[in-house]
C-alpha cells in the first residue's frame, strides 16, 4: 500500500509539472508571436540582419525551447533569467577555427561595449614566452578595466586572471593535429623555405627518415611549428615526447578550461558555448572565416597521416583527451534536457520533425540553418583575400573571404577582418583613457 501511495504521489507530481510546463510553453509561444524581434541585436548604428526563422527562442539556457520557423524572440522579463557572461577568456589556438570564434567574440564585445585586452600594436599578446600581465605595462590603456581576453598568446591562466581581475569563464578550441599542421604549412608560403622542402609530402618524408631532426623541430619565427596546440597552451617542448608528463599537464588544462571546443564539430561546440556563457543563438550565428583556398591544399595518404600523427604525438594526446571530454559534455547536456518534461513532452509533441538524437543535435541543426540563411542574405561571393579591400581584407592572401551585400545593413560585421575590429577596439580604449584623464 505504501509503494502504491508513493507511486500515486509521484504520478500526481509529474502530472502537475507537465501541466505547469505546458502552460508556460503555450504562453511563451503566444508571446513570441506577439513580440517579433530580429535575429541579431542592433550593432552600433547598423540595423541587424533579420533571418527568416530565429535560431532559438531567446530566453537563456537551460530553458531554451528549440522551435523552428519562428522569426521572433521571447520577452525575457517573463522568463526565469540567468546572467549572461560578459567577462571571459578565450585561448586562441593557431589554425583551429579560432578566427570564426574570435569574430563571434568581437561582435559580442562591440554590441555590449566591452574592452578587449590588446597589445600596443599587432594581434599577439605573447609569442615565445608565456603570457605575462606586465607585457601591458607600456600600453596607453594599462590601467583600463578589461572584459575579454581573446588574442593569440601562450596560455598562462594565472596571469590572464590578473588582467581580468576576476575568476571568469575560460574556453578554447582544438583540432586534429594533422589538419593543424597541414593548414599552417599551406598558410605561410615561407614554411617550405624554412624547412627546406618543396612541399608537404617531402616534409613528411623527412619526418619519417629522422623525426628528431633539429631542422624539423625548430619553430618558424620562433613560435610556429611542431605540436602547435601544446605550444599555444603553454606546455614546454621538454615534455612533448613524455606521455605521462603530458597526461598530467592535460589534466591540469582540463581543470583550467570550462570548455574545450572541437573545430571539426564547430556548431555543436557553439551550442555548448551558448550554454556555458548563457548566450543566445543570435550571438553565435556566423560565417566560416579564414578558410584556406582549395588550390592551397595537397591531400595526404594514410601512411603520411600516420607519420605526421606520430610526429605530433603530444598534440594528438591533447586532441584525443578533449574529444572524449567533448562527447561527455554533449551527453551530459542531452541527459540534462531529456529529463525535463518541458523538453521531453511539450517540445516533442510540438515538432513533427523532432530529432530523436538529442537536445544538442536539435540546436545544432537550428544553428546550421540560421548560418545558411545568414550566408544567403549577406554573401554575394567567396573570393581570394587579394580581391578584398577595406574592413574585409585580412593579412594573408592564401585564404578566402567574402564579398558582402552591403545593401543589407548589419552584414559587414560578420565578415569584418581582425585588423579592422582591432582598430575599433584600440580607438575605444584610447578614447576611454582620454575621457578619464
UniProtKB/TrEMBL annotation:
InterPro entries linked: Gal-3-0_sulfotransfrase, P-loop_NTPase
Transmembrane regions listed in the UniProt entry: none
- Gene Ontology CC terms, in alphabetical order: Golgi membrane
Location(s) in or outside the cell:
Golgi apparatus membrane
Q: Tell me yes or no: is Transmembrane among this UniProt entry's keywords.
A: yes
Q: Which GO terms describe its biological process?
A: glycolipid biosynthetic process
Topology in the lipid bilayer: Single-pass type II membrane protein
Q: What keywords tag this UniProt record?
A: Glycoprotein, Golgi apparatus, Membrane, Signal-anchor, Transferase, Transmembrane, Transmembrane helix
Gene3D superfamilies on file? P-loop containing nucleotide triphosphate hydrolases
Keyword Nucleus recorded = no
A family per Pfam: Gal-3-0_sulfotr
What span is annotated as the signal peptide, if there is one? none
GO MF terms held by the record: galactosylceramide sulfotransferase activity
* Protein family according to the UniProt entry: Belongs to the galactose-3-O-sulfotransferase family.
Protein name, entry field: Galactose-3-o-sulfotransferase
Organism (species): Daphnia galeata
Source lineage: Eukaryota, Metazoa, Ecdysozoa, Arthropoda, Crustacea
